[in-house]
């Protein structure tokens, strides 16, 4: 793991987690998607496994879908994510679907209200792109008082440099970086603690 020094001070702790998967939709994750990220299909089985475990354990799961574009996104990217590009690439039964039009999943959405109503303390993040929507949402969650956990093998980006730079930034000041194996072990421990 590339973030061991940060983890000494900030270990992985779960008490009341929710899973937020960001923009795992046709636009980014299928070859016919207009912003397809080559290789992204490698993270989809792991993302689906985490989603299934959270649903089985009756823990909150939210999936964002990027649709349209905010005015600032339009000025920057000069495009719109059309309806035909919004199909989720995971089986999201049991999850809340949240539509957004900017990098930040909290901006102009009900995400904070959804999390507060469920007494969420830790927001577990994965999705695309690590350096844009995942990082922006992680920073926004931190500012709102949530403990942030980013699952590195459930995030994908245009290239490794963007991906690892974003994870390094987040580990320094905003959240714990983990992997799916460690997170699944922590979820098992959480369930055992609740049974005692």
Q: Any overview of this molecule?
A:
The chain is an alpha/beta fold and 196 residues long. The chain is built from eight helices and six strands, in the order αβααβαβαβαβαβα. It has helices at 4-9, 26-29, 44-56, 71-77, 111-117, 130-143, 160-173, 180-195; strands at 17-22, 61-66, 96-100, 122-128, 147-156, 175-178. It has a six-stranded parallel β-sheet with strand order 3-2-1-4-5-6, with helices on both faces. Helix 6 packs parallel to helix 7 (160-173). The longest helix has 16 residues, at 180-195. The radius of gyration is 16 Å and the shape is globular.
Contiguous uncertain segments of 5+ residues: none
Mean pLDDT: 94
Helical residue percent band: 40-55%
| Oligomeric organization of the protein chains | single chain
Q: What overall form do the CA principal axes indicate?
A: globular
Physical arrangement of strands within the biggest beta sheet: 3-2-1-4-5-6
Q: Give the class from helix and strand content and strand pairing.
A: alpha/beta
Radius of gyration: 16 Å
Number of helical regions: 8
- What is the beta-strand fraction? 15-25%
Q: How many angstroms separate the termini?
A: 31 Å
Spell the H/E element sequence: HEHHEHEHEHEHEH
**Got a strand count?**
6
Question: Biggest sheet: strands, sense, closure?
Answer: 6 strands, parallel
